[in-house]
Write a structure and sequence with these properties.
The complex is a heterodimer of chains A (about 290) and B (about 170).
Chain A: H1 2-28, H2 37-68, H3 70-114, E1 117-125, E2 134-137, E3 150-153, E4 156-164, E5 169-173, E6 180-185, E7 191-196, E8 201-204, E9 217-220, E10 232-241, E11 246-253, E12 262-268
Antiparallel strand pairs in A: 1-2, 1-12, 2-5, 3-4, 3-12, 4-5, 6-7, 6-9, 7-8, 8-11, 9-10, 10-11
Helix pairs in contact in A: 1-2
Chain B: H1 2-19, H2 21-24, H3 33-45, H4 47-64, H5 71-89, H6 95-120, H7 129-165
Helix pairs in contact in B: 1-3, 3-4, 3-5, 3-7, 4-5, 5-6, 6-7
Classes of the chains: A alpha+beta (about 290), B mainly alpha (about 170).
């Protein structure tokens, strides 16, 4: 054991002596760049230590910033996500408000041009059964609504009030199978009756000699006592002629019933409703 | 006492190396008497003593020469340590092992010494093998002689005393 210690001690001494000689040599010898080897080796070794240290610290910083500090980022991300969600909701609200404003502007414009006594209403519900095409609006008898009052939109005729309550009313859409309106063709003044088919419109009771073409605009005639004269119902989509009478005249509704948001309820038709027409979109008032 | 003997041996070797060696081999440095002393000390005293002896002798040799101080010291330290270690592990009392030891020690010393200079870019050694071989043989011969002289010295002194008494 003692012999081993002596050998180990000799080995350590040998290593120390060797290192001492190397240091001594390095202190005297210059490198190609004129720097003493001792300085170059020391600097190089220390530079490597610095590099390793810097790398380790950089790794720690990277780990900290990329992983540990992500907890803060996660919280910030969650906060930003909530903020984005709130902003999205607000954006949708603003969009809805803007759309509603545009719709109301159109309604106001229509009302001013139609010179009708109307009240604006928002649609609060759709039909309870697909077999009956109805909607519910947020105005009722308290606002002056009565049964069989016409409901119109900027694009054209919507339907009529069938069941008003104090603060709401059920509107039968013109496309309902039980709905009908007196109509005339704008171009040829040919008259008939527009009836709902459940999903579209059909024009019946038209004279066999009437001049009807696909694309003609069909307006309300006012003879039914419900719808004011001259409001757009739709356009002729198809014409199938029979013997002596028109077999079937299909109409494409002017109003997109699936996207209705607000309507006008005609409280009182104009006293003197002459022949006239309001083009699609209500750009023109009755004549 | 041992340390003093080593120091004296090194001093004598240095003196002989600087004054007499060049006369022996036509002015060439074919012998390294200091290295012979270091190997001798290492073989007789062990690696630690051989190492320190080599370091001291080499540093002095370096200081007296125009070379880099430490190269010779490192080379002789390594040789002294290895020679002492081998001398402890193996029986190196016969002539041939000693001869081989001196040759190997010289080769090792040359390798480290020249290698360090080449590594540092300070000197170049063109075809050193012949010089190394001749030096190794010369060192081995001197070393064998030295061993023979030292080992025969106690007996010769005893025989001389015996003759005087007679």
């Amino acid at each position: 054991m003692a012999l081993l210690d002596i050998r180990q001690r000799t080995g350590y001494l040998f290593i120390a002596l060797t290192v001492g000689h190397i240091v001594l040599i390095s202190a005297q010898v210059n490198t190609d760049r004129g720097v003493p080897v001792l300085e170059a080796v020391t600097f190089g070794a220390f530079a490597e230590v610095q590099r390793v240290t810097s790398s380790a610290i950089g790794g720690l910083r990277t780990s900290w910033s990329d992983y540990v500090a992500l907890q803060e980022v996660r919280r910030e991300n969650a906060r930003l996500r909530d903020e984005v969600a709130q902003l999205r909701v607000r954006l949708q609200q603003e969009r809805a408000l803007a759309q509603r404003s545009r719709t109301l502007e159109q309604l106001l414009d229509l009302r001013s041009q139609a010179e009708l006594v109307t009240v604006a209403a928002s649609i609060i519900a759709g039909g309870a059964s697909p077999d009956f095409r109805t909607i519910t609006i947020d105005k009722g008898t308290a606002d002056g609504l009565r049964p069989d009052m016409a409901v119109i939109a900027p694009a054209g005729v919507v339907g009529r009030i069938i069941t008003p309550s104090a603060r709401a009313a059920k509107v039968q859409l013109l496309i309902d199978r039980n709905a009908a309106a007196g109509a005339l063709v704008e171009r040829s003044r040919a008259q008939g009756v527009v009836e709902g088919t459940g999903g579209g419109l059909r024009m019946n009771y038209v004279s066999g000699t009437a001049d009807i073409l696909v694309g003609d605009t069909v307006l309300t005639s006012g003879i039914d006592g419900i719808y004011p004269k001259g409001f757009v119902i739709g356009q002729i989509q198809s014409v199938e002629r029979g013997q002596g009478v028109f077999g079937a005249i299909g109409l494409r509704p002017a109003v997109d019933f699936s996207s209705l948001e607000a309507v006008l309820v005609v409280l009182m038709p104009p006293a003197a409703a002459d022949d006239g027409a309001i083009p699609a979109g209500g750009a023109q008032g009755p004549q | 006492m041992k340390v003093v003997g080593v120091l004296v041996a090194i001093a004598l070797a240095l003196a002989l190396q600087t004054t007499l060696a060049r006369f022996l081999v036509g002015g060439t440095a074919a012998l390294d008497l200091v290295l012979v002393v270091v190997v001798y000390v290492a073989l007789t005293s062990g690696p630690a003593t051989g190492m320190f002896a080599g370091s001291l002798a080499g540093l002095i040799q370096d200081a007296l020469s125009s070379g880099v101080i430490g190269v010779g010291g490192l080379a002789k330290s390594i040789v002294g340590f290895l020679a002492g270690s081998i001398g402890q592990q193996f029986i190196v009392t016969a002539a041939l092992p000693r001869f081989v030891m001196f040759v190997a020690a010289t080769a090792m010393h040359a390798a480290v010494f020249m290698g360090l200079y080449v590594l540092l870019g300070l000197r170049s050694f063109a075809s050193p093998w012949a010089a190394i071989l001749s030096q190794a043989v010369g060192n081995a011969v001197i070393g064998m002689v030295a061993f023979a002289i030292v080992e025969s010295l106690p007996g010769a002194l005893e025989r001389r005393r015996m003759r005087r008494r007679m």
